[in-house]
Structure formats: structure tokens, C-alpha cells
Amino acid sequence: MGSLQDQEIFENGFSGTIKPLDPEEFRRQGHLVIDFLADYYKNVEKYPVRSQVEPGYLKKRVPGSAPYDPEPIEEILCDVKNDIIPGLTHWQSPNYFAYFPSSGSIAGFLGEMLSTGFNVVGFNWMSSPAATELESIVMDWLGKMLKLPKEFLFSGGGGGVMQGTTCEAILCTMVAARDQMLKKIGRDKINKLVVYGSDQTHSAIQKAAQIAGINPENFRAIATTKANAFGLTAQALRETIKSDIESGLVPLFLCATIGTTSSTAVDPLGPLCDVAKEYGIWVHVDAAYAGSVCICPEYRHFLNGVENADSLRFNAHKWFRRRRLLPQALVKALSTYPEYLRNKASETKQVVDYKDWQITLSRRFRSLKLWLVLRSYGVANLRKFLRSHVKMAKNFEGLIGMDKRFEVVVPRNFATVCFRISPIEIGGNYGQIVASEEETTNYFNAKLLEAINESGKIYMTHSVIGGVYVMRFAVGASLTENRHVNFAWKVVQEHANQLLTM
Amino acid sequence: MGSLQDQEIFENGFSGTIKPLDPEEFRRQGHLVIDFLADYYKNVEKYPVRSQVEPGYLKKRVPGSAPYDPEPIEEILCDVKNDIIPGLTHWQSPNYFAYFPSSGSIAGFLGEMLSTGFNVVGFNWMSSPAATELESIVMDWLGKMLKLPKEFLFSGGGGGVMQGTTCEAILCTMVAARDQMLKKIGRDKINKLVVYGSDQTHSAIQKAAQIAGINPENFRAIATTKANAFGLTAQALRETIKSDIESGLVPLFLCATIGTTSSTAVDPLGPLCDVAKEYGIWVHVDAAYAGSVCICPEYRHFLNGVENADSLRFNAHKWFRRRRLLPQALVKALSTYPEYLRNKASETKQVVDYKDWQITLSRRFRSLKLWLVLRSYGVANLRKFLRSHVKMAKNFEGLIGMDKRFEVVVPRNFATVCFRISPIEIGGNYGQIVASEEETTNYFNAKLLEAINESGKIYMTHSVIGGVYVMRFAVGASLTENRHVNFAWKVVQEHANQLLTM
């Protein structure tokens, strides 16, 4: 093998046996994959939603080393079908109701294709002006759709940026807040900084604090209660802050959530911002889940109070407001300007260089995707689409209400229903287990959910809220229609029947 | 408008006027975009490489708000052609020689399509087993192609992960190293930690240190010299470390680079690892640029010494080695396990949950892309492809050598040539400017580069190395053939002729 490889060094010239971007070959193979995916969507309903493979399944089907010689695309697609698809959990299945569904769309897909095809790396304006300018424009579009205060928009001195993920968005914001504060109180106080959230706040915030070097002991997951619908109360926040200040700590950052991951609970923005303001705390609004539905006027009230927040995140997008000299705080914290990136446009300060608004240097032309989605569907259809999810969730909630063995555990705010088999039903059948009624109920609901998911017919996930194990039914997959919701309910009932008569 | 919107709330049902993922519509629109992109590649050579638009050009062509009603894809593609393409800097042009080119390929594109199409969010094994397992498999494939020591592979107790970007990769590694050290010396010492690189190290490392809460005063960009080909010497590293320890600081992390961004210089891994080992410093190898070419046996020697490093990054991929209980240090630093993510597979510890190997929770099915690339081209063609880039750069270097007005400023290691008009040539024509000869030369070369880029015929970027302004000619765009290199040289000469006779 050694001599073969040594020989290669001499044998290849500019003859161009490899044309990795030949337009006609691109066309041919591209069409093949489009058809492959169209057929996948046509059949996705038939696959078990949650993958049924065992850990390590793929190692048995795939060689241990990369091939030396090229392989044809047809063969690779065959392997995708036979080896990869069985190992997928089908997030695009209409019977997918787990976590929060990732609602794919044709327009989104096409936007990704264009972005991948142009393959520009838009770290600064110069490296591809359209990438930066379109992003600023669609961020303002989105801000207007959400009726954000003017100071959040570029046109009002603020501005938005598309981040790769939630976690990056939070981390950037927190670093900006941290550095602003450390400049005031001195770097040696970094161990005194405190970050606030509730026990329902997304784990990303704790991870971001951890990465940013905040003392792990200074992350406050303030307890919520059923009485307050698992929202963080202003009173609880104030008490925690006061006690921290008494201990010589420095309150830094509050994350308020509109639509928590466990139960889609809503933190009351207005009162929380009032408290935060008093203590000079940066308020970041995490509207990752429920932000989108706020483009419908009837849901916009959930964002009331945002005018006093410092930053807002919504899916992969984020805005900064002007008041606290933002986004300047962000740029200050994240800016780098090595020689090889210097250019006239940046020096005139007429342009945004998005590399300074994020962790990473390089970035995809992300706004193409959002631009295509907004134009292909228009505000009208996007609202209809979101409302149809809420309606389907309402329908599911109604079905639960008609079966007295079940209960909805927390009030439904959006398109996610948290429910379980009620304790009473179980008492009769599982009374022999020596455990508290609550433990028994939790155990039984967990068993029911696992049986449902193992069937492959539908896929839901769970959470534990205030000690109660709940099944989460999250509507949002793009192919889901009301008939799938009705089918899902039948699947739940059938498995409950089986378990309850065991 | 208010009443129109209020009415909507009542008018839509489950009638499904919106089918955002209809398979046949997906097929139709998908084919349209494939043809659009194939035509783009066919014509990309004709566009000015660097975009010629002025800041703010797009605002004048695009409405200020999102459309209320849907728009057809045909119209949107028209706008992409008329409004977006002029604002692109064409990274896929065969005449693109700027920064480091992003070499797109058909296989890579198809992999992205499949990943986007399946749209799974593979944060843990359960959420899509194939995504995790394929990633582990291809990371081992790649590790073997690079002949990494066994401890870097999953099969040897280490393991690899695909990160979104360079900066994320470095940040993760640094946080793991930081927390390991703080556990030993106490959190209150965070301001004592020191991070080492050279003055040629990528700015991402300084930014990562900044985000991770390392005191900005404790980032050492150790000076390099032309005498050492701009590589970091073990002696300089040792002296800096010693002086830091004398000042009561704690050496933490060294980034050694194989192929720096400015001039593709190589830090000598072996001697640097020896010094680092002595002081218990984490060694991270940044082989982002030159790592790939090390799959060719004749370049592998640049990685010699990697057996004593702790982590290695190479493009968007990263390996951790076993010796220092890695990747456990990483998982320890980045792990979160909220209730809604709990699942049987994770609890058995039989599986990798990649969310704990990175900053973000969610992640794309990234390995599909790499898998398709490795299989479509095979090791054989990938080597040929990389060698053809080096050959073309050599050719360019040869052309420079034949024109005595020019000089190659630093020795070429890979496929990037750093060159300039020599001081002597300029003396005669720009002598009237009151400045040192070096300043005059730099000024003149900057002027030449700007004139070349403004022509739109080719695009190069610059750097300043050891005070010398250089033009960087980086071969790597997938469509580049030797004729483009010859053409580029003609463009350089023509512009030089013009300026030198002005």
C-alpha cells in the first residue's frame, strides 16, 4: 500500500479527473436526491416514529475505514435507505409529537439549498454584502411582525442577528452582560456574579453561565409552583436577589421565558422587568418556543413588557435593544479584527460585521432561508399555520377531557398539552405497589409512555413538573393534520386500556 | 388592517390550505432550485468575484416589511438572481483566491440536502441514533486517514465530534481545560489562568479565551520571526511560561497551529508538546487549514508530535485523546441532563450523547455530509484533489519567480502563496512619498491589491507578516483549474504594469 500511495504523488497532474463541482453532474445528482427526499416525505408516515435500533447497530453495517476508491451516488443512496433511515427518529413524521417538533418546510429547505449552493462565508460585510444586508432586513421584518418596540430594530438603533442555536444566542448575550458589569466592578469580582432563572428555565442558560465562567454556585433556578402556573414570580425573584446582595454577591442576568420547555409556562415579563430594572440586571427574554405564535395578534400580549427587556431571542434569531448601548455591548465583548480581515467597508463603519455579534467567525447565509419562508407563505399563511397547531392541540385537550381516566396537568397555553392518567384510575390496579400514590402514578405514566413510544405509532416525550410526571403532546410537525391527532389519542387510549387491565 | 387580522382568527380551520411539506410540491420546487444552482455554477466564472455593490444597496431593492400574502417561488428566484447575486462575493468562482477558499462539492451539497431534508435534531443518541453513530464512525475514518494515534479514536478510548465551527471547537476545548484546572486550584484563581499562542495564531483563540472568562491580560501572543518561518519556538514558549509562573500566574492552554491563517506557517508540534508537558499545559492542535492535506503521506510529517497533544481540530471536526481522561473532561464541563431529555439509552451509558461534547444542545445531522464526501471521492481522489491545489500554487510561485519585480515573502508550505512587489521596483516610482522604504512598499502593494480586487477579475486578500504587507494567493476553490491560475497571474502583472508606469 505504501508504494501505491507514493506513486500517486507523481501520477496526478492538472488533467482534472476530479471535477467536484461540475454543473451537469451537479444537476443530475441533485435531481436524484430531490426525488429521494420527495419519496421520503411521501412515505414518512409509514416508518416507526421513534427509531427502533439498538445501540451500536450501524457499526455492524458500515466498514471500519473510508473507501480508497470513489463510489457512485446511486449506491450511497441505497445505503441511506437501508442503513440510515432505520436509525432515524422521524422528526418530519406527522405522528411526531415529541420535544418541540422541528417544522420543516419546502421554502426553508430551498433557502438552505441556496445558502449551501452559494456557499459564501459571510463573516463580515465585505465577504458577501448580500448575506449581511438581507439578514438585517429580514430581522427588521420579523421584529415588525412581532410588534417589537422600535429600539429593537436596526431602523431604531438596535438590531437583530441570526444565531446558529439557542445556546449560542444566550451565551453571546451573557458574555456581553458579564463584560459590561466586570468593567464597572473589576475583573476580580467574576466569581460574585449571579444569573437568575426559574426551575423551568431551559438548561441552555445554565450551560451558558458555566461556559462564560460564572461560578456554578451562583446560578439560581428559582422555584415555581402550580399556583402560579409554573411562572417565575416577581416576588420570588426579588427575595432571591435581596438575599444574594446581602451575601455580597452581584446580580447580573435574568432569563425570562415565554413558553418553557417542560410545560410552555410563561414568566410575567412586565413585573419581572420592573424588579430587574431596580437592581440593574440585564433581562434576556427567551421566547424560543412561543415567540413565533406572537405574530398572531391574539397572542401578542404574552410579549407585553418586552419594552423593558434588553434582549430577546426567538428561535434562532435574536434582537438587542438600544437603550443600554446595545448591540455595542455585544460587539465590544465579541469583536476581533485581525489584519487579514481588515477592509475599507469595515473601516468606514457604514456596515454591520456580523462576526462581532456571535461566537464564531464564519457563518452561513442564514437569512436566505428565513427570507424564502416569509415570502413563500406570507404573514397570512404563517399565522394560519401556527393557529392550526394550536387548534389541533385544543382538539387533543378536548379528547382528554372526554375520558375521565385522564387529566390535563397544567393549563395549555399554546400547542403543547401536558397530561397523564389520573391517580384515581391507577389506585385500583396498582394499589399493591408499596409507594406513595404520586410515585405510583408517576411510575404508571412512565410505563404507559414507554409502551406507546415502543409501538412506533406515535412519539411523545415526558417531563416532571412540580413532582408530577407528565406526557407532553407537542403539535408542530409540518405534515401533522387533525386526523393524526385523533389517531394519536386512539393510540394513547389503547395502550392505557392494555396497561389498566393487566 | 386590525379588523382583517381579527377576522382571520375565526376563518381558518383544519382545511389545510397550507401544506408546507407537500411531497409533490417539494419535488417541483426542488428541481427548480437544483437547475437554478447548476446554472449558477455554469456562469459563476462570469461574475465579478468580489461583489461590487455599495453599503446599503439591498435596502433600496427590498420592501421594508414582510409580505402579507404568499409569493410564488418563480418570483422569488427572479429576485435572487437580480437582487442577491450581485451582492454576493463568489466564493465558488474559479477566480476566487481570497482568505481560505471554501471548497464546495456535489457530494457535500447532497449531504447537506439529506441532512436538511431529514431535519432531525440529534442532540442525544435517542433523538436519532443514526446521526450519532454515523458521526462516531466517520470521525474514526478520518482519524485513520490522518494516521492519528489510536488514543484519539473511539476505538482507542478517545473520540471525535463535528463542531459547527472552529471557534466553537476551540471554546469547548478551552472550557474543558479551564474547569479541569480550576477544580485543582480553586475557582477564585480564574483570573490567574494563562492561554498561549503565537502572534500568528487565529483570532478565534483569543475570542474563545475572552468568552470563557479568561482575563484578557492573560492571553499571550508570543512573537514569531521570519528566521523561524513564523513558527512558535519551544524556547520562546518556555521563556514566556517561566516569566508567568514567576508572576504567580497559572499556565493553562497552548494552541499550536499547523498552517496559520496569515502565511500557513507551521508550529513545531514535537518540541512545543515537550515544553507543555513539563508544565502540565493542555495542548490543542489547530490544523484547520493544513490538516486535510495531511491525509497525503508526503505531508503527514507536519502532524508529527500530535501523539503528545490533548486535542486536535481539523476543519469543523475535532478529536480528543484518552490520556488525560478525555473526552470525559469535556463532558464534565458541558453536560446537562434536564428531565425532558432523560431516556433509557442515555442511562445505560452505552451511547454517546453529542450534546455534551459541544456548546449547543441541538445539532444537525452533520456527518451525512462528510460520509457522502468520503464515499463519493474516496481517499484516492481526495488526495489527488488536494495535491492538485498544491501543484497549482507551485505553478503560481514559479510564475512569480520568473518576474523579477515580484518576490515570494515567506516559503510556501501548502497551497497558499504570500508575495508582493519587491521594494526595489517601487523605489524608482514612488520615491517622492516621504516614508520609509518598507512603508512605501506596503502602501504600494495595498494599492495594487485593491486595484486588482476592484477589477472583479480575481479576488485575493492580504495579510501583514512581520511588518510586511503581503498579497495572499490561496488556491482551493473547487472550480479552479490551472488556466485560472495563469489568468490570475496575468491580471496581477497587468495591474502592476499600470501602477508602476503611473
From TrEMBL, chains A, B:
Q: Which UniProt keywords apply?
A: Decarboxylase, Lyase, Pyridoxal phosphate
Q: Which domain of life is it from?
A: Eukaryota
Q: Which cofactor does it need?
A: pyridoxal 5'-phosphate
Q: Which family does it belong to?
A: Belongs to the group II decarboxylase family.
**InterPro entries named in the record:** Aromatic_deC, PyrdxlP-dep_de-COase, PyrdxlP-dep_Trfase, PyrdxlP-dep_Trfase_major, PyrdxlP-dep_Trfase_small
Species in which this protein is naturally found: Rehmannia glutinosa (Chinese foxglove)
Record protein name field: Tyrosine decarboxylase
